[in-house]
Every structure is written in structure tokens, then in C-alpha cells.
């Protein structure tokens, strides 16, 4: 069973979980990492980790979780987290508004976002996901980051 650990904004959690459940993920496969509970999860080997918000506490535990993961999905716009990547090896997928990110946006309009895959990504079945643009709905109460986080997970596990 694939386990996914997600460190993201609280407001993104329901949106991401609903999207994953629609893709046949079960709730016991997805763990939302929180500062006050992350110590309890330090011995779990996640296949995929999303680092989508600033890590201010438990940095060593987060680094350990990242080191043991097959994929790390990393918000490259949060520059305070970049030091977490030093001396670690894993398959890294960056996302954000940073033009050098693996996954970025090419346009954001009211209710829609166009997400750009700028480098080839190999999914868990080793199939290549080619460079492309994908249009997604952008609910008014959800940030572009949450949409990118969900899309990357869908691409990896589809």
C-alpha cells in the first residue's frame, strides 16, 4: 500500500483528500503532517511526501521522512525550506510560481488555472509524463498551490 504524507496548509486538506478519494485513494493511505503529531509518524516510510508549507519545527524529522521517501513534491516558492533539500537524494518534483519549477502555472484566471509540466516526470509505474499544459478548475476558496499538489499526486499515481 502506498502511503502519502502531506505537509500543506489546513485549508487545502479537504480539497486534496476529496480529489484523492475520487481517484480511489483510501483515507488510511494519506497522512496530513502536523507540527504537533509529526513526531508520531517519524518511523513511517512514505512513498511520497509533499512539502507545501514552511517547516519551522521538527526540521530533522521532516528531513528524515523526505530521505526515506521515493518522491518528494516540494513547493519551491517557500525559500525558507530550500535548506531541507541539502545532501538528500530522492526523486524531486518542484512546484510553484517559480519559472524553474517542474510544475508551474502558465495562467490563472477566475475559476481556472493552467498548469504547465515543464520537465518529464516518471510516475510510479515508470511511465513518462511528457511536457504539457493542463487546465483545472480553481475553486474560489482554494489556492493554486493546492490544485498543483493534487494534480502532481494524480499524475504520479494514475
What's the arrangement of strands in the largest beta sheet?
A: 2-1-3-4-5
Structural class: alpha/beta
Count the E strands: 10
CATH topology of one domain: Rossmann fold
Please identify, by name, the CATH architecture of one domain.
3-Layer(aba) Sandwich
- Share of helical residues: 10-25%
Radius of gyration: 15 Å
- Assign an overall shape: globular
Catalogue the unreliable spans.
none
Count of individual helical segments: 3
Our estimate of the beta-strand percent is 25-35%
Let me know the largest β-sheet: 5 strands, parallel
Query: Residue-averaged pLDDT, rounded?
Result: 90
User: Which sequence of SSEs, written as H and E, runs from N to C?
Assistant: EHEEHEEEEEEEH
Using the coordinates above, name the CATH class of one domain. Alpha Beta
C-alpha end-to-end distance: 14 Å
Describe the overall structure.
The chain has 158 residues and is α/β, with parallel strands linked by helices. The chain has a domain of 108 residues: Rossmann fold (3-Layer(aba) Sandwich), CATH 3.40.50. Helices cover 22% and strands 28% of the residues. It has a five-stranded parallel β-sheet with strand order 2-1-3-4-5, with helices on one face. The chain has a three-stranded antiparallel β-sheet with strand order 6-7-10, with helices on one face. It has a two-stranded antiparallel ribbon with strand order 8-9. Strand 3, helix 2 and strand 4 form a beta-alpha-beta unit. Helix 1 runs parallel beside helix 3. The protein starts with a strand and ends with a helix.
Keywords:
158 residues, alpha/beta, 3-stranded antiparallel β-sheet, 10 strands, 22% helix
Amino acid at each position: 500500500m502506498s502511503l502519502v504524507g502531506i505537509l500543506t496548509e489546513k485549508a487545502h486538506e479537504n480539497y486534496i483528500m476529496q480529489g484523492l478519494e475520487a481517484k480511489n485513494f483510501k483515507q488510511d493511505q494519506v497522512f496530513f503532517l502536523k507540527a504537533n503529531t509529526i513526531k508520531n509518524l517519524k518511523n513511517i516510510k512514505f512513498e511520497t511526501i509533499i512539502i507545501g508549507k514552511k517547516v519551522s519545527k521538527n526540521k530533522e524529522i521532516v528531513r528524515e521522512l523526505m530521505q526515506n521517501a521515493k518522491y518528494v513534491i516540494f513547493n519551491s516558492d517557500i525559500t525558507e525550506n530550500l535548506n531541507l533539500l541539502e545532501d538528500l537524494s530522492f526523486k524531486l518534483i518542484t512546484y510553484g510560481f517559480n519559472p524553474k519549477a517542474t510544475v508551474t502555472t502558465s495562467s490563472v484566471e477566475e475559476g481556472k488555472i493552467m498548469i504547465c509540466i515543464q520537465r518529464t516526470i516518471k510516475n510510479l509505474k515508470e511511465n513518462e509524463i511528457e511536457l504539457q499544459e493542463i487546465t483545472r478548475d480553481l475553486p474560489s476558496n482554494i489556492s493554486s498551490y493546492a490544485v498543483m499538489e493534487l494534480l502532481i499526486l494524480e499524475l504520479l499515481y494514475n
